[in-house]
Amino acid sequence: MAALSLIAALALGSSKALAQTTVSIPSSGASAVAVSSSLFNTGFELASFPLFAQTYLSNPIGTKHATRIQRIGPGFWPLTSNLAAANPLWQPQLNHLNTTGSLTIQDAQAMASGIGTSNIIAVEIGNEPNEYGGHSGGSATNATYFSDRYQAIVANVSLAFGVGSTTPFFAGPDLATYDFHNKTDWSIETLFGTTDFDKTGNIKLATDHWYLTNGDTSIPDIMNHANMVNYSAPIAKAAKYFNTFTPHVDYVLDEFNVLNGGADLTFSSSLGSALASVDFMLYAMTLGVKRVHFEQAYGSNQAIWIPCNNGTSVLAQTHSGYYALITASEFIGGTSGNTRVQQITPGGNDGSRFSAYVAYNGDTPNRVALLNLNYWDQSQPNTPRGQPNIQVSGIPSSLSSVKVEYLTNPGGAAQNADQTTFGGSQWPYSNLGMEKKGVQNTTTSFPVKGGVASVAVPYSSIAIVYLS
């Protein structure tokens, strides 16, 4: 009979055995995409940054391997010293409406002295120019106007920082997600391809914003790999463009999160949103996206941790997005900066509720991510959690067993981060973001025979399989 996805078979209540999902690891990383260990980072909304800076987290991103980059707006440069112990790089922002050269130079000089030029990866000018006209009409600026205005500001900023006119030091245009699927008047490809935006080669990062939903979906809906790939087609198109663009410019998602705005934290603090985030971030790697900045806005759906209490309504805590960053970063860890990533098409599965990726250390398989996006939650009456075994082949013959760590929650996909763990550990606010080991027993091993292991991957969980 035709193979059904795992969730479809469960929903139909079929008594027949589910098709075996198989994952075959390519022996060579020749088709894999090189990625940086500093791919995953965080960004702060301007109004939120003082709240995050006043309560320092020892491990503000919670990743073991990433070079931390923080993105903020102008005006708070002395506050950056509060996070100096984390050794971050910064991407500060200048107002696109700064029409006075002296004001622009003052702001840039404040950045240089407050942050330090060596701690700045790029300077961003403007923000979401395709939104300057609001959601109801066309963009207030066309691509040529934005390009000319941007480069006029760059001339003053370059003087303040003492960088040459051909030095790659700037980021833009940071187009808004909303208009990608609606009324975009111009795209990032239009800006770079038809204007003088990067005529002198001073653009270092080509930047867009990307959110997986505007709030018109549910947790089960967001946990769908096939839908995510289809929805993210504009990102795949832009990444492909910049993979061959000359002079070289890194394509960066300068804002990323699951849900765009809103104050209801139920959706974004769920395990399901973390699973969807990991799936997108790993997929983005395979496209050639060079950096992903996980967006932070205090008290909104975009917060992956809350740094301080807001009365009794919002309490300091880490959310599930924090664990998404940890999981994605761990997947590309342990490779001495020589990481390559490839998506694996599963066998016996239509790929809508399951995805798989392999990370190579150079040309050697290093880790495999198995994402079971089938929805399960304890709120479903009389529905046991599915526990399928995934047959993984192509494991190095030198291994007799593989260690596996899980991103999971015993209550399921709709639960918040209170019981979410990765590898049995938590990174709670009570520890100021430091790892708390042994919270749950969610690290195990599976035997390997003939290069094949049968790895259990429960519904609504991610398994990271270590091959070295």
UniProtKB/TrEMBL annotation:
Signal peptide: 1-19
Domain Beta-glucuronidase C-terminal: residue ranges: 356-464
Keyword annotations from UniProtKB, A to Z: Signal
One Pfam family cited in the UniProt record for this chain: Glyco_hydro_79C
PANTHER family (alphabetical): BETA-GLUCURONIDASE (PTHR36183), BETA-GLUCURONIDASE C-TERMINAL DOMAIN-CONTAINING PROTEIN (PTHR36183:SF2)
Identification of the protein by name: Beta-glucuronidase C-terminal domain-containing protein
